[in-house]
Amino acid sequence: MQERTMRGIFPILCTPFFEDGQIDEASLRRVVDFNIQAGVHGLGIALASEVFKLTEAERERVTRIVVEQAGGRVPVVVNTGAAGTDLAVHYSRAAHANGADALMVMPPNFMGASNEEIVDYFKAISDAVPLPIFIQDTQMVPVSTGLARQLADTCEWVQYIKVESQPVTAKVAAMHDEMGDRLVIFGGAGGGYFIEEMRRGSVGTMPFCTQPEAFVEIWNRCQAGDEAGAREVFNRYLLPVARLSGQGAGLYFGIHKEILRQRGVFTTSKVRSPSSALDPYTAAELKAIVDELYPTPVS
Fold first, then answer.
1. Is residue 24 included in any domain, yes or no?
2. Residue 280 belongs to a domain
3. How many domains does the chain have?
4. How far apart are alpha carbons 79 and 187 in whole angstroms?
5. Burial 109-133 (b: 16+ CB within 10 A, else e)
6. What's the pLDDT tens digit per position in 205-251?
7. Residues forming beta bridges with residue 205, ordered by sequence position
8. Is residue 39 part of a domain?
9. What is the CATH number of the domain that holds 94?
10. Domain range spanning residue 89?
């Protein structure tokens, strides 16, 4: 069995764009450093990175930049799921070639797939690329405990699972009870149930990348047995943003990019089309939150 050492806070990075939609490399490098300097344990490139809006060349470029800027300080996990097996293998090989430390793979969902087809899909990726694989369990494509166990038993490199299908906390508990040491469990869903997930057996979370200091402090407090203190940090720093951004995917991207812009990490808060602009009420509410929590931009 491969050693499974990844645990802790693995934020999913937003991809910064200039107003013309081109990738802003300097801001991408800044968000990598911003998160690493906050003490995170890893980084992710995934759905919250708008990978589904990137060309294949851009996906590779973003991976190269993040891996280069991370410089081995933390592992980098790259989402390589696709609608077809061959394409997912292609994305996975490209991520490996560009320095990724692990893959995150969602089952194919465009046409739907049987459990047998999903096992074949994951096995093809596992056989092609010698990197640890996170199963991505989402509300779009939930992965049952039985299927997760089958994937772990069949595919050498399927070693982790990111759980974020509802009910999240119950799903984490069920996975923990079913998997034993077959799969290492991470939470997702923006980190909204991070503390509850750790009670039920998760060893980390893959949240948004705009407030890494808060997530790291919560992690450190929980590891020290100070769950009450962790809850105070969660309620003070994360809950206001989670309430605002949790109203739908259309707001999620814009809100988190605007936080990064206001904190001095991103140059713009551009989200690639299709996207919804923040309405004046939400924009004002967000500014008030950021002004209160983070009055000084990061250096």
1. yes
2. no
3. 1
4. 15
5. eeeebeeeebbebbbbbbebbebbb
6. 999 999 999 999 999 999 999 999 999 999 999 999 999 988 876 78
7. 9, 187
8. yes
9. 3.20.20.70
10. 8-238
